[in-house]
Amino acid sequence: MALKHATPLLDELEKGPWPSFVADIKRMAAKSAMCEDLLGQLELSYEEKEGHWKHGGIVGVFGYGGGVIGRYSDRPDLFPKVAHFHTLRVNQPASKFYSTEILRKLCDLWEARGSGLTNMHGSTGDIILLGTTTDQLEPIFYELTHQLGMDLGGSGSNLRTPSCCIGKARCEWSCLNTQDITYDLTMTYQDELHRPMFPYKFKFKTSGCPNDCVAAIARADCSIIGTWRDKIRIDQDAVRAYVGGELVPNGGAHGTENRALDIQEEVIRKCPTRCMQWDGKTLKIRDEECTRCMHCINVMPRALKPGEDTGATILVGAKAPILEGAQMSSVVIPFMKMEPPYEEFKSFVEKMWDWWMENGKNRERLGELIQRLGMKAFLKATELQPDPRMINTPRYNPYIFYDPADVPGGWEHDAEGYRKRHQA
């Protein structure tokens, strides 16, 4: 089927070995006039090097302040089918577990009432339904809630849709019930999720272990990272089997060949705190120095496991580069038991939100406020005690400063002593 708009610039994006969003839109354009005009407007944007979407005011569903992102074309004369092209964010199930029945119903709904284009998923985690008109918003919302049992996610200056990794459902390393935490936070904070009341957006992300498969530490205003506070469990027979070539390192990932593991080079020397020793028969770990980086466990998954006294490390302040540049999370609670109904965690969250709402500027993320007023002010507001593990840059720049005079021999002496103690 020939398209009514010529798209020579967009056609270039279909060339090469990688999948193209242009090809996806063209497939939908065969049965959606909205997608045809979308291609035409996008081509015009490439030609003129200027976006042609405008903000035409707040649009949404009754009773909700978020969940719908209004989008209007500034050239409805050329592309009338995208005069309105609103996006809906739909709250995804925890860990993104779907039945095929729900997915089919969702796609049928969107093809009937929208463009048919979806994004599974946005960076926060939501199901993104791309492109519909204002008159369809209420019918779509009704069908989502009453027929599919789903709800809109967060958008605007509110709590964004909480998200999490696969957790204990399929991962043996998970130290947390990530699905239960995410569901509990979602249900507890409905007002904060649907009615913008914050200085800017706020994201919870939960990872079951320090591998952090949802990249919470880089993206979430509040990261919940599963960890443990007792000793790493060691199967010494399995360690010897890795060294002897009987077990494949890294779980066979990325085509790892069946070979003997060089434990000194691949594990011991790569430990960030050098807290491990191998004498040829027994692996020893000084757990009090372990930073829970997971490297040794990932290399030897049959030999090492997280401890059994599990909980979470709570970090705050990450964001992508928008106004002040990217920020990584900072540790504020090194260990917290995360057990239903999570009252200790929620108490911390509400103190944090109160401080942010009182002191935050418009469009200022939590991490930017901490950067502006200082970690000391944040800790005072949330009633947390300073701790050397509350760090800005791991193993480099602590918030808690020490006088060099308090270290025997000064910093250089101490650093040299560290090197001697931990040299191979």
Automatic annotation (TrEMBL):
Family matches, as SUPFAM superfamilies = 4Fe-4S ferredoxins, Nitrite and sulphite reductase 4Fe-4S domain-like, Nitrite/Sulfite reductase N-terminal domain-like
A molecular function GO annotation: 4 iron, 4 sulfur cluster binding
GO process annotations (BP) = sulfate assimilation
Species in which this protein is naturally found: Desulfoglaeba alkanexedens ALDC
Q: Tell me the InterPro entries matching this sequence.
A: 4Fe4S_Fe-S-bd, DsrA, Nit/Sulf_reduc_fer-like_dom_sf, NO2/SO3_Rdtase_4Fe4S_dom, NO2/SO3_Rdtase_4Fe4S_prot, NO2/SO3_Rdtase_4Fe4S_sf
Q: Name one GO cellular component term.
A: sulfite reductase complex (NADPH)
- Protein's name in the database: Dissimilatory-type sulfite reductase subunit alpha
Indicate yes or no for the key word Oxidoreductase: yes
What's the EC number here?
Answer: 1.8.99.5
What taxonomic ancestry is recorded?
Bacteria, Pseudomonadati, Thermodesulfobacteriota, Syntrophobacteria, Syntrophobacterales
Alphabetically sorted, this entry's keywords are: 4Fe-4S, Iron, Iron-sulfur, Metal-binding, Oxidoreductase
Q: Which residues form the 4Fe-4S ferredoxin-type domain?
A: 281-309
